Amino acid sequence: MQPTRNKPGRSSGKRMLAGLAALLAAFGIHAAKAPPWMDAKLSPDARAERLLAAMSQEEKFALLYSDYAMPGDPKGRPVPKGALISAAYVAPNDRLGIPALQISDAGLGVANQGGARPHSTATALPSSLASAAGFDPALAREAGAMIGAEAFHRGFNVLLAGGVNLLRDPRNGRNFEYAGEDPLLAGSIVGATVDGIQSRHVLATVKHLAANSVETGRHITSMQIGERALRESDLLAFELAIEHGRPGSVMCGYNRVNGEYDCESAALLTTALKQDWRYPGFVMSDWGAVYSAAKAANAGLDQQSAPSFDQQFWFGPPLREALARGEVGQARIDDMARRILRSLFAVGLFDHPAKPSAGPDDVAGHATVAQRVEEAGAVLLRNRGDVLPLSPSLKRIAVIGGHADKGVMAGGGSSTVWPNGGNALPPMPPAKFPGPPVFDPSSPLKAIARLAPQASVQFAEGGDVAAAVALAKSADVAVVFATRWEAESQDAADLALPDGQDALIEAVAAANPRTVVVLETGNPVAMPWLERSAAVLAAWYPGSGGGEAIANLLFGAVNPSGRLPLSWPRSLAELPRPVLRGAGEPESAPGLAQRIDTRLDLDIEGADVGYRWYDRTGRKPLFPFGYGLSYTRYARDGFTVNEAGGKLLARLRVRNTGARAGSEVAQVYVRLPDGSPLRLAGYRKVSLAPGAQAQLEIALEPRLLARYDEASHRWVIGGGTYRFYAADSAALDGAQQVELTLPRRVL
Ligand code: BGC
């Protein structure tokens, strides 16, 4: 039909349609005219403006809060009618066609703590640390698109997914939800995940702005940090994630920064986010993070989430009263509503409404996505005498501990996914938030047995050390699975594996020198037995395809290519804050507030988080950021860095000099002329067949060569001689080096 559209016949067709409309009108039937904001050709800003102009004050205020939408509301309210059971809900506006907002946690897959919701299972991604360790934004985007698709099919259109808080302390119980210690890596990986989610017309939320660095005292602690240090670290991660992902929403956190609550901080929400970064979307609060109406609104908070968690329904009557008193202007109320609407248009929530049960998930296909994220992100830390990869012709394999017969561990709290297939283990404490602990039903034991069909693969659960030792003694190789459950709302007391697992590993390693340890943890842990082990694989929390991924890595069906997104400490003593008072205690512990430091001095390390701290103090971690072994070897040469048209480009050649296919992560670090510590300025993962080589071009992020100038709010490349390193970790062992002199430049 298309070609005839502009031909003469069109006007007679038009006349016929007009006649038909007149006839229908005579019977009282009027053809609905799409309202002006539904013109998809207009920009999201123009559409939001038109819709706003049609809204009453009541309708605007209705957008400025969400309702908690799970049973167990802190104020006893029922789940709102029309809400899917989830973190929050905003009722639709039928008069104007504004869709309901069905809001779910989804950092690691569509969350559904405790399987509360009917038909509530979903694909569990591995820990975000695994996504970060993959150093592969394209894969992170694919994983995001998978979550987006699952959310969309369940009717969710807003996801609380996009944790990008920098890892400042390896005791933080939520580090598994975040993407490590480096702003460039975290920002690019989380930005790609957000972009993937939103490609499915589901709005994503980058969180928790800002410096939500530990869980201990998260509602009261103030993070003390200078403006420049914050901009060059945690805020840079947000800035980059927002640029890459363009999230519809940003969540302000629970903690305070320099005395000001995150959700009342004009410095964070308005100056940095909305002015300096020109963020056009909206800010929602964390659940129970709001303490005022006028102050929060004027600071830049646009939507109060689940007011039942706050002392008051601040963005209800108190905000209206503040408006009446002139403490908040009408322009700001309009701005709040406009920002929300603009994001809904930008992500496509009006034009592509999410539909519950729009179709079954591709469960197997999605598990494969989760499996690939784990395969790309598990990090091989040690491989003495090439004990790995295991040979499929082994006769006897001992698998020990970690419930490896049933599945793989997941982290706890609001991000927990009730996995397809259900919890692999019977209920374990804590029954209540942040529990119950979940194991994804992807058994490493079964996957190992599948890859070694001729072997006798035996399992010992590990509680009985003597039985585990006897099994290990009789085997060609012993694979010990060690777990540590970590969760939102609580930090770990230290780096130790719990429940006597160190003693178990020592005993097994003494019985069998070919002992391989697989760690399922939310953070780096102490490994007192390291020298006695043959190999160690950091598998993080491995997700829905975790068992298969681990087996593939152990047998070399997949060559390990994950690289540490964090510095693995030898002990807490080498950290900026060796002591974290109250760490290890649950949030509900009586009197906890009196036992913690309510002001944490982040200026000790300032912007020098992780490997920068080690660089600055001249210490060496146990394993450096960027480190990870492979079953092949790589060589780098031909490293150059050039500036053209204001863009910085590194070039280098990477060769696979070994006998197996594999993926290498080329990392480019820079030292600034002002003597500040090392920074990752660019990276690229590349897959290479044995003997193959690739010429890589890596765009370097100019802000990593710059310092933040507080007075002008600009990034300034200071000028001078910059030293660049092409390396395979932040330890810079065997790195190629070049120097480049750059003039002073304001970015
Ligand atoms: C967490 C957020 C989460 C929210 C909703 C809070 O406790 O800090 O990350 O999105 O709950 O479940």
Please describe what this structure looks like:
- Helix 16 (501-511) links the parallel strand 16 and strand 17.
- This protein is α/β, with parallel strands linked by helices and 747 residues long.
- The strands form seven sheets. It has a seven-stranded mixed sheet.
- It folds into three domains: 46-347, Alpha-Beta Barrel (TIM Barrel), CATH 3.20.20; 373-555, Rossmann fold; 634-746, Sandwich (Immunoglobulin-like), CATH 2.60.40.10.
- The model is unreliable at 1-21 (pLDDT under 50).
- Helix 5 packs parallel to helix 6, helix 5 (137-153) runs antiparallel to helix 13 (363-377) and helix 6 (183-198) runs parallel beside helix 8 (234-245).
- The site of beta-D-glucopyranose (BGC) has 7 residues, from loops.
- Beta-D-glucopyranose is lined by residues 87, 105, 160, 207, 286-287, 414.
Short description:
With 747 residues, the protein is α/β, with parallel strands linked by helices. Helix content is 26%, strand content 20%. It folds into three domains: 46-347, Alpha-Beta Barrel (TIM Barrel); 373-555, Glycoside hydrolase family 3 C-terminal domain (Rossmann fold, 3-Layer(aba) Sandwich); 634-746, Immunoglobulin-like (Sandwich).
